[in-house]
From TrEMBL:
Belongs to the major facilitator superfamily. Sugar transporter (TC 2.A.1.1) family. Its main location: membrane. InterPro entries: MFS_dom (IPR020846), MFS_sugar_transport-like (IPR005828), MFS_Sugar_Transporters (IPR050360), MFS_trans_sf (IPR036259). This is Major facilitator superfamily (MFS) profile domain-containing protein. It is a multi-pass membrane protein. One of its GO terms (molecular function) is carbohydrate:proton symporter activity. It comes from Pseudocercospora musae.
Amino acid sequence: MLFRNSVILVAVGVFIMIINACTIVRWGRRRVMLISGLLLCGIVQLIIAAIYDAMPTNESVPKAVIGLSVVYIIGYNGMISSYAWASGGELPSQRLRSYTFGMAAAVGVFGTWLATFTAPYFINPASLNWGPRNGYIWAPSCFLTAVWVGFYLPEVKGRTLEEVDEMFAARLPARKFRKYQCIGMTRHDTSPSEKDEKEAVETIERVSVDQKGASKVAETIVNPL
């Protein structure tokens, strides 16, 4: 029974990720998908915990938990996991992208380890024996994260890396990223290029040569001999 349920959940998760890979470029709005996925997962976990808490011995509860777990996998794999990794690669500045993404990945791995390490203590009958009631813990975390995404995670679908840098340089609130019209005045545009620097050096050299020539002419006029 447990093996069959695990196979069902894994198969649904893989299927949803394949669909998501085909649609993320065309319809993948990061903020909407992340907020929707977090709210969906939070609500599902809350329902699972409430059902099990109210009817722990009912024979229909395990079936309901499995069905709701499928919905949870759809929300997590289809809306949270994929778009979280995409945002982690798109939002950091080009200069600090590798460091920022590496730190984000490390924090994510640590969170996964923490959840995996502590879950048995909440679920096992020999410990706290919460069972599915541990949804009471994880549901609020989903809701809080959804609020954070709404306030602080910008929408960058269809934007180039230069446009993302420009919008961050303009200090836009996250909610205004989606409708902002970029004007191309990024930091890369304002910094002098190698060609400009070379032309500036040549201009300075020409001015210096002209000044020396003018000095010699003036000296010849004053002292003809």
